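Dear support,

Our group has been running a series of protein-ligand predictions, and this particular one with phosphoenolpyruvate is the one our PI (initials K.S.) wants archived with full inputs and outputs. We had some confusion internally about which version of the output was final, so please treat the block below as the authoritative record. The input we submitted was:
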Amino acid sequence: MINGIAASRGIGIGSICVIKEHELKYEAVKVEDVESEKKRFDDAIEQFKAETMEMAEDIRKRIGPKEAEILEGHLVMITDPSMSGEMGKMIAAGQCAESAVEAVCDMFIGMFSKMDDEMMRQRASDISDVKVSLLKILLGIEDVDISKVAPGTILVARDLTPSMTSQIVKENVAGIITEVGGKTSHSAILARALEIPAVLSVPDITSTVKDKDTAIVDGTEGVVYINPEGDVLSQYIIKREEYIKKQAELQGFMGKETVTADGKSVELFCNIGTPKDAKKAMECDGEGIGLFRSEFLFMDTNHLPTEDEQFAAYKEAAEIMQGRAVIIRTLDVGGDKDIPYLNIKKEENPFLGYRAVRYCLGNKDSYMVQLRAIVRASAFGKVKIMIPLVTCVEEIRAVKEMVAEIKKDFDEKNIAYDKDIEVGCMIETPAASLIADIMAKEADFFSIGTNDLTQYTMSVDRGNADVAYLYSTFQPSVLRSIKHIIECGTAAGIPVGMCGEAAADPLMIPLLISFGLTEFSVNPVLVLTARCIISKWSKADADALAAKVLSLDTEAEIVALLKESAKE
Ligand code: PEP
Ligand code: MG
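Confirmed final output from the archive:
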């Protein structure tokens, strides 16, 4: 078994075809006839553009416009004067076309690959793709025709470039293994769009396998088997069948209401970080946004986003969701979330320090900017405000006062907004949980943040591997806290949701149904899985299980019972 990065879910079993990299060798001679060298270069650029355009068009038809944009980006790059113009100048000075292409591309690759930002680093691999394609044209090298591989092929390559991916015929490629690339690399994006199982970053795979070797690609777990033993192969054949069956079953939940086995409706929302993710939420059939982590807007720039910039982002999400709820959590900075330009001073205990609503209420001017932007966006959909990390009721009151001030100002200036905009809070600290009954009198809704609630209840840093064995939502203390919060919210007549990871945990879902949770907010890709599991539990079954769970003393016993009772 070889480990890699799980980049595209599913199981592929088939016969390997290794995409070899050609040696792009040439002699860097000084050219005499600059004019004809320039023509050779211009012809190569024209050929590159024509081929890339054709591939982009093909991808647009077969995969989608978003994926075609990756190749269109290559066209934009090569036509940029800083690239082809620079290359032209080097040729005019007597360099051969190959070395001009290589020198200019390498300069950009060097520059982008050093950047911290993953998107910028991705640029480096795009330019490398452009460089290789151009050199191949100049050197007259023809590649393996990926579009002609036999059905059941596992493609193995150092990197799967967008230009290679564009040739893939989905029905023929059972899996993809590469030596480089992460979850957000273009090869990963394209593999997911094509729904081909893929495992990336498998070291030296191109040199350790040969054509026709048998391979299993488990893109869900991120593991690869080469020439597996008979029993591994037969287990995986069964696993693949189950996976395919499960996917078909899940697709049946598309467009359906989220209801328990006894017909009670609940809301199934999504967690997002950017307005673009709202599109993903819609594509995945999310019924609203239960958590818009607004800090991503602040992290993606080097300045505090202005009211207009924030308004544009919140409005975009609201419009994409077409009247469905969009719960925007105000800036949750500090703890593990650093925003350098805010210059928050280093603390001994950042998780217990000046973070989230504490920081915001201490910096009211900039908090006002964010709240104004959210209230303005409420004119364009069902926008709600959510306060993170509250520990006492004064914090909710302070935010509500600020919102009231904004409403008054907007009324005077005739600025449109939703007069019924709700202000709710996350319940993610033991303090908030213990006074959930008091909080419920002040908040319009609750959303349980189990990621932090577990951390603070168990006193374990959620990122510390040494204490990770204690970090479990199934600890009796955490379960009691969750139950208590839901009961307090329900008794006060306010909706209680959950936006921590536990909301999508198949083992947790029956307990949440029993406790009376009315809104589950999950990663968009987990919407159908969550809807499917919710559909399998009636309140009576969930109550019976919850009663047993709550009578147990340890996390291990609870998890064992939940696993035994799981309805797959
Ligand atoms: C949580 O704490 O459960 C939560 C949803 O917020 P975050 O993970 O952003 O802290
Ligand atoms: Mg949190």
